[in-house]
Amino acid sequence: MLSVGGGSYWSSPTYEFQPANCIALMKDLGCDGIDLDWEVGADHDGQLGYAIEQLKRLMPDGKKISFCGWSTGAMDKVGGDQFRGMNISALVQQGGNVDWVNVMAYDAGPSFDPKAALMQYRKYYKGPLSLGFEVGTQYP
User: What residue segments make up the domains of the chain, in order of their start?
Assistant: First the structure.
């Protein structure tokens, strides 16, 4: 999978996703699909769904689409928290166009409840879910 995104890749809400360029790179590298790591925040939650829709329209047959969901991205939105609930819109609108979701639970903090996060993602997405987290003491 070609992973596209990250904390600074989508850093501007006005960033224009270029799916054709990503697909061209995916083909050049011989990847099986594209994984979107979208981290803009809940105020712009429609962008991930739009990116998935664009990607699905252009994606060659047999290639996969996944996305990295923020640790609290499927939890109820809470005023002032830009990350809680930021994936709900995409899951509801475009979940059928996603082959699986990777929940980014690493660096979520000591109060993070991974089981609760998976249960919340399951409310909105019926496909395969993966959960990644750090084990043990992390050293800088």
Answer: 2-132
User: Any bridge partners for residue 64, and if so which?
Assistant: 33
Looking at CATH, the fold of the domain delimited by 2-132 is given as TIM Barrel (3.20.20)
Burial of 104 (0-12, 13-18, 19+ CB in 10 A): buried
133: pLDDT strictly greater than 90:
no
pTM: 0.85
pLDDT of residue 87: 92
Tens-place pLDDT, residues 62-89: 999 999 988 989 998 887 888 888 899 9
131 burial level (CB within 10 Å; 0-12, 13-18, 19+)? middle
Give, in degrees to the nearest 5, the angle at Cα 74 between 22 and 20.
10
